[in-house]
Design a protein that fits this description.
This protein is mostly beta strands and 201 residues long. It contains 2 helices and 13 strands; from the N terminus they run βαββββαββββββββ. The radius of gyration is 15 Å and the shape is globular.
Length: 201
């Protein structure tokens, strides 16, 4: 295979919990009218065309003016400033869908690729709590929605590019200020997800 990456992901968005996009295959109108989301990805192990990607973190920022399934989304990438130029090129190809793989299924819905920003990206998980920060551009945290035995509730068989099985979570904090996408919320009422991932193409 030309490339493969695996690791962990978390996201928050501006929809109230539970986001209608995931349970309607992107056909529902977001709860705020538009959709703003940041998908943070920690690559534990991976490579593309001989370029090692182990340990690189990046965040894909999305915005749509209505239902995501209607297309016309704006997508941009924030890639860790410690990544080399070769790693940035490889991750951009993977995360944009240009290199095939799961993100290619989203490509027809993207109207504008906003480009790549560099910042110190840090993604951390401890049990059912996840955080992701990218300089002054993104600061988000989510906590799993737990069942009675303390394990996270999950959505299974989801049509989601990261994983078909996602933990349900509430956004504790969600701040975006990049690519013209601005959002700030700390009410604990917004949506989040997290999951392991394994992609190849």
């Amino acid at each position: 295979m030309a490339w493969q990456i695996s690791g962990d992901y978390m996201e928050t968005c501006n929809c109230t919990f539970l986001c209608p996009c995931i349970v309607t295959n992107l056909q529902a109108r977001p709860t705020e009218g538009d959709c703003k989301a940041a998908l943070a990805m920690h690559i534990a192990k991976g490579s593309k065309d001989g370029v090692a990607l182990d340990g690189v973190d990046f965040i894909a920022v999305l915005q749509s003016s209505g239902p995501m399934g209607a297309g016309g989304m704006t997508v941009g990438l924030v890639i860790d400033s410690d990544a080399s130029d070769a790693q940035v090129e490889a991750i951009t190809a993977i995360a944009s869908g240009a290199a095939g793989g799961p993100m290619a299924m989203m490509a027809p819905l993207v109207g504008q690729f906003a480009g790549v920003e560099r910042a110190k990206v840090t993604i951390r998980g401890q049990g059912e709590k996840w955080t992701a920060k990218a300089g002054d551009l993104i600061d988000q945290e989510c906590e799993g929605a737990l069942n009675m035995d303390g394990r996270a509730l999950v959505i299974d068989n989801a049509s989601h590019p990261v994983n078909s099985r996602l933990a349900m979570a509430r956004a504790v904090r969600s701040v975006f200020n990049v690519f013209g996408v601005t959002w700030k919320d700390d009410t604990g009422t917004r949506n989040g997800h997290y999951a392991p991932f394994s992609w190849s193409g």
